[in-house]
Write a sequence for this structure.
């Protein structure tokens, strides 16, 4: 950042390099405490993001002064560029970088590759069945499952039943022609809340080969698995399948996709679809 350069060039009236100013660091610490923990560097990060400029640049003063919430930063930034010693500026920069790093971590896409192979597992890649069990067992609020085929033999139904017994809200979307939704309803134990069951809507004029072919698992709107595997024994344990697990805000897109399908009536509750 340019503030470091200006500080290292800073000289006293006689032209000699300025010496360190120990009290500057104390002043920055006191200011941060007064403005709440890391308040000053947090404000600097916000200014940098909003104005898309370096707050320590001499040309930034005019832009900052026009923003009422940030104009109070000008005295602090002017002091940093003009008088602060390099260690104090480095401390402030590192604080700003720490804030930016924390913000990036909150929005970063966390992805994991998973696979099904006949041997059980591939080097460095966890099996599909293990990840599915982990995700469903950890569900606290909601589960969304889109599966072309879902059978009891794959273990998915018992996992969903256990989640439903914990009062986790469950939506299941199956292919209309495969009729997994009806089989799920028929095999569901009494006394456990039945999931909301959906199928793809009949589409007049559409090809008879058109399917609801998604294989997707979303837990608590934040933990998403997209896989080639059906939720069957072969899909979970015997076929060659590949998928990716995504955690974070991007997983919410799967919930929006399901909401879109419902709004457009591309999927319908089983009672309405005639499946």
């Amino acid at each position: 950042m340019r503030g470091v350069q200006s500080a290292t060039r800073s000289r006293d009236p006689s032209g000699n390099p300025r010496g360190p100013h120990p009290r500057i660091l104390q002043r920055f610490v006191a200011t941060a405490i007064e403005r709440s923990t890391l308040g000053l560097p947090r404000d600097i990060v916000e200014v940098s993001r909003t104005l898309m400029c370096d707050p320590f640049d001499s040309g930034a003063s005019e832009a900052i002064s026009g923003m009422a919430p940030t104009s109070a930063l000008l005295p602090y930034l002017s002091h940093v560029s003009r008088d602060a010693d390099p260690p104090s500026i480095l401390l402030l920069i590192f604080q700003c970088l720490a804030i930016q790093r924390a913000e990036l971590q909150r929005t970063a896409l966390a992805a994991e590759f998973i696979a099904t192979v006949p041997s059980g597992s591939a080097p460095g890649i966890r099996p599909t069945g293990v990840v599915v069990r982990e995700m469903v067992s950890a569900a606290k609020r909601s589960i969304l499952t889109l599966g072309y085929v879902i059978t009891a033999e794959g273990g998915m139904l018992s996992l969903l039943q256990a989640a439903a017994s914990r009062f986790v809200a469950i939506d299941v979307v199956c292919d209309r022609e495969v009729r997994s939704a009806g089989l799920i309803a028929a095999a569901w134990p009494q006394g456990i809340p039945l999931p909301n069951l959906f199928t793809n809507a009949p589409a007049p004029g559409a090809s008879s080969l058109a399917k609801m072919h998604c294989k997707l698992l979303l837990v608590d709107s934040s933990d998403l698995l997209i896989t080639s595997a059906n939720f069957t024994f072969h899909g979970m344990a015997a076929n060659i399948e590949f998928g990716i697990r995504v955690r974070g805000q991007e997983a919410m897109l799967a919930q929006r996709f399901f909401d879109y399908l419902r709004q457009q009536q591309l999927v319908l509750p089983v009672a309405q679809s005639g499946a």
Summary: The chain has two domains: 2-107, 110-273. DSSP finds twelve helices and nine strands in the chain.
